[in-house]
Specification:
alpha+beta; Cytochrome Bc1 Complex, Chain A, domain 1; globular; 2 domains; six-stranded mixed β-sheet; 466 residues; disordered N terminus
Length: 466
């Protein structure tokens, strides 16, 4: 043992000496660049159950583990008028409320005995379920999954707890400046659209257990479901198992059709009066959708503006050079029917107006003067490597295929994006950056009431309480 330790010590010392002798400069993460890897995603098998439910399969026998994913239409944007929060209550209750065969504690124990991970829930537009389990226990895991999806107990006591949990979430939003800013952003950007309706204590109080049970029935019978699987399984055997257990799931339905794109709202600056030592600023607007020819160059423009961290213009100008913000950045999220772009930052109350002006100035400069060849080259490599890294886990590719199926988008979105990214030129990015029109969006400022209306020249100011 001592001899092995001595050998290891010598090897380590040799590596240290070699590294010191090489004379290479220390890597600086702010300026480091890396060669782009080739994007070669694995082939995903596309099948269908007899019911018509699409199934995306990717076998991987390196580890004796199976990850199963289900996705379906339905979520918070489909809540009925006056009962906003219904989907969130079901999202909490579905997994924690037990099944017809087992109370909540007994069902959790059955899952734990298999060392499995089992979840289900709903988001804004879609819901999900997932199962991660050792391949030798796959059949038992599928039994539990089917039992939870098709025959949940929706326990009455847990239902009341779920409502209280959602009420607490509503209250927490009022205490968190960032959450509060995005709440008001959604309310104003999507004004007159289901996406702009906000959950309140009153709307949660109107939700009954019967409402939750009815929503569950409609999701099973009148939604659109897709399934994905990654891991150590035989495709034909798994398809048979899924068909026998989950054949009742709907392949198409009328209750949860995609919503139309929201209309462009009137420009407004919303001042949320909150007694805090810092201000949160958020600007955003509707943007090109995912299949727009401007999507890929706008992704590059967003990274240059604020999406790439310390290399971005916003971060350099406002935080690194001036020290005025705790954090500042931008975002661009393209969807099937529309997209959303924007930027956000946090600063001290005394510098709120200055940071607001600097954010505006950087966007206007990007929109009018465009970008440089060096910025585009750096961001293209960064985006390409991040996409490749994302798909190192094959589950990411399967989940994207499932999302595209539900959204009615092409199955080769990832491959298409990489081809478009390779072809993007400086002029394309500069042209796409003209989508940033500061006078057309929504500004949200969360801060002290002492911030006067005159601080926001050119904007209609609305004051709201949290």
């Amino acid at each position: 043992m001592r001899r092995v330790a001595n050998i290891l010590s010598l090897l380590i010392a040799a590596l240290i000496v070699t590294g010191c002798a090489s004379g290479k400069a220390k890597l600086d993460p702010r300026t480091a660049t890396f060669p782009r890897e080739r994007f070669t995603p694995p082939a995903v098998m596309e099948e269908a159950l007899p019911s018509g439910v699409k199934v995306f399969l990717l076998e991987d026998h390196d580890i004796p583990l199976v990850r199963l994913y289900l996705s379906f239409r339905g979520g918070a944007v489909y809540d009925p008028p006056g009962k906003k929060g219904l989907a969130d209550v079901l999202s909490t209750l579905w997994r924690t409320g037990g099944t017809e065969a087992s109370d909540p504690a007994a069902f959790d124990e059955r899952v734990d005995e298999l060392a499995a991970e089992l979840s289900v829930g709903l988001g804004r537009d879609t819901g999900f379920a997932s199962l991660s389990i050792l391949s030798e226990d796959l059949d038992e895991g599928l039994d539990l999954l089917a039992e939870l999806l098709l025959r949940p107990r929706l326990d009455r006591e847990v239902f009341e707890w779920a409502k209280e949990k959602e009420r607490a979430s509503v209250a927490r939003v009022r205490d968190n400046p960032s959450s509060l800013a995005f709440r008001e952003f959604r309310r104003n950007l999507y004004k007159g659209h289901p996406r702009g309706v906000i959950t309140t204590e009153e709307s949660l109080s109107a939700v009954t257990r019967e409402d939750v049970a009815d929503l569950h029935r409609r999701l099973l019978a009148d939604s659109e479901w897709v399934i994905g699987a990654v891991g150590d399984f035989d495709a034909n055997a798994l398809l048979n198992s899924l068909s026998s257990r989950l054949g009742a799931l709907s392949a198409a339905g009328e209750s949860f059709k995609p919503l139309p794109a929201p209309s462009t709202p009137a420009p407004v600056l919303v001042l949320v009066e909150k007694d805090t030592e810092q201000s949160t600023l958020l600007w955003g607007a509707l943007a090109p959708k995912v299949e727009s020819p401007e999507r890929t160059p706008l992704e590059v423009a967003d990274q240059i503006l604020g999406g790439s961290g310390f290399q971005s213009r916003l971060m350099r100008e406002i935080r690194s050079d001036r020290g005025l913000a705790y954090g500042v950045g931008s975002f661009y999220s393209p969807f099937k029917e529309f997209g959303v772009m924007g930027m956000s930052g946090e600063t001290g109350v005394v510098s709120t107006r200055e940071v607001w002006a600097l954010m505006t100035k950087e966007v206007e400069k990007l929109s009018s003067a465009g970008v440089t060849e060096e910025e585009v080259a750096l961001v293209k490599d960064t985006l390409a490597n991040s996409y490749i890294f994302r798909y190192r886990d094959p589950a990411s590719l399967v989940l994207e295929r499932m999302g595209s199926e539900l959204s009615g988008l092409p199955q080769d979105l990832a491959e298409r994006f990489m081809r478009e990214l390779d072809a993007v030129k400086k002029d394309d990015v500069s042209a796409a950056a003209k989508n940033y029109k500061m006078d057309k969006g929504i500004w949200i400022v969360v801060g002290k009431a002492e911030l006067g209306d005159e601080d926001w020249t050119g904007w209609k100011v609305i004051r709201v309480n949290p």
